[in-house]
């Protein structure tokens, strides 16, 4: 009986285990993770005895990867209310303009009162050469000017990646826009083309947006019972042995397979395997690969990560604005970068006489605020939220703080080429594969696809 070890118990690793079980029902599977709980960045919690998400709260439902997986596992998907979102600027909450793709506008007239866009310069030929990659900020600044980046694109990307538009790869973070920019001579035209694209690559960003069928479907979804329900269902369906709270310290090729050393330095344990899926962040994966394949390790080891904190608050006896939440540009000077009105966005989580709010803090390169104690973060968010809303807020009846150190990959231009080279260096060995957000994009659909591809790559005899 073949034995596969999956290093990493996040959604990518668990999907790989599930897909391997489907392919080979008799296979032996072991999932090893240094965390005491499964799920990676998927983690449900409680706030005032109500379920909330302490990690990723939603997935792009227009990408079929997660809805199909949920259906296969017997889970129910629920969609948000459709309440609008806003941008906080100069003491006001401005609705996010329609026809934008992660803040990049397809109609400059829609930006009136929000950001001044410069007229697009004349370009002869496509905006982006085949195979080329630049930062999102570089492209948008050159076409529309700095205000569009600072007031729209940067806060949008900050909410998803905790990164900055001027550093994040266009090809990874906005793949449909990158593809359209290789065909269009204006950015407005590229945005419109991208919004009309019926399918997208692994990251799923804007996948399906604008097509007649997709337009009738909600953009986002979540799992009834919380994201932890997805984690538990995948683990159970995989039938894998779970080894939690145990770091993987060494990985070595043997004549018949792989040798992994797990656990503490005082009481290490050796596991023999026929195949391995590395579904953990890029830097620890690079450390494990260094002896076996230094070329792959060097390519993925350069990926950096941002840390974030999520602060959830339950306020008694007040009503929040009729919107799903808002984003806060870094230029506004607040530590809070995104706010979700949980019960406004997700009606199935509404509770009488309570308003549930979740705030995100932490931007790449400026993470000092995350060093504050939990109580200070709660007070900081409450004070900034009151200032942003222009109203006094009562003391919350409950609060929950979750810190995610090194949570979000920072894809610089050229990331996809680095990953391709890393996988090419490993391609001669069909008993090892890479999976996860560090390679194929953030978002649950991207991780599901990545885990599926990693399982399909393994060929055992």
Automatic annotation (TrEMBL):
Required co-factors: FAD
EC number: 1.3.3.15
GO MF assignments: oxygen-dependent protoporphyrinogen oxidase activity
UniProt KW keywords: Cytoplasm, FAD, Flavoprotein, Heme biosynthesis, Oxidoreductase
InterPro entries documented for this protein: Amino_oxidase (IPR002937), FAD/NAD-bd_sf (IPR036188), Protoporphyrinogen_oxidase (IPR004572), Zeta_carotene_desat/Oxidored (IPR050464)
Subcellular location: Cytoplasm
Keyword Amino-acid biosynthesis annotated: no
PANTHER family linked to this entry: PROTOPORPHYRINOGEN OXIDASE
NCBIfam families: proto_IX_ox
Role description: Involved in coproporphyrin-dependent heme b biosynthesis. Catalyzes the oxidation of coproporphyrinogen III to coproporphyrin III.
Protein name per Swiss-Prot or TrEMBL: Coproporphyrinogen III oxidase
Species this protein is from: Longispora fulva
Species lineage: Bacteria, Bacillati, Actinomycetota, Actinomycetes, Micromonosporales
